[in-house]
Amino acid sequence: MAETPYTPPRSAVDGLPQPPSAKSSKTFGILGICSHLLCLLGAPFAILFGILALVRHGRAKREHAEHPESYAPPRATGLVTGIVALAMLVTVLPSTGIAAAIAIPALLGQREKAKIRAVETLMNNAAGEVARTGDALAARTPGVPVAAEAVVLDVLGRPGFRYPAAKNPYGREQTPYRMAEAPLGPGEVALQPVQAFADPGSGEVHPAVVLRGCYLRNGEARTVSKVVAFD
To answer: Do the Cβ atoms of 155 and 123 come closer than 8 Å?
Structure first.
């Protein structure tokens, strides 16, 4: 008669320990599921741990088959958690991709708006200082028209308007201010002295400083301007 494998009674099987690989299979399966908390960064770990869980479960089954008198049949926990860890990739990866597609443009939009506000701040700081300097010069020389170029040179010579106290929001390591008709690039503010500036509304002519700031919107360079006139 052919020999048949030894099969212990059910009560005896219930009291046997799990095969050594069963515990590690369960652990790898749980780690694979938890890896999905890292979203895209956790995907490689989820794949690795999920595969390890399945491999270790298969080994646990072989350990039971080789020593049925010593180990109980391995529970399906490791197998199930490993399959779940791998199956979650089907839902997690598309969801993460959709979230990234929404979040990344929003983040870039916020960064763009922050740089635009920084350029506006540079212009407002310069305009305020130009107005104060022009008023001080007019008070010292009453009856004499304010020299717009002297005002600009005075303001641009101050430490607060030179690099690194004043920085280009687009990352260029140079002062964002210059005396010119127009800025050369994004993040720059040009101060143009005009000794005879005609007010478009009233037609009156005054010394003035025209400020023009350059920023990027949707990758396109745009310019905003402001005029500080001296009475």
So the answer is: no
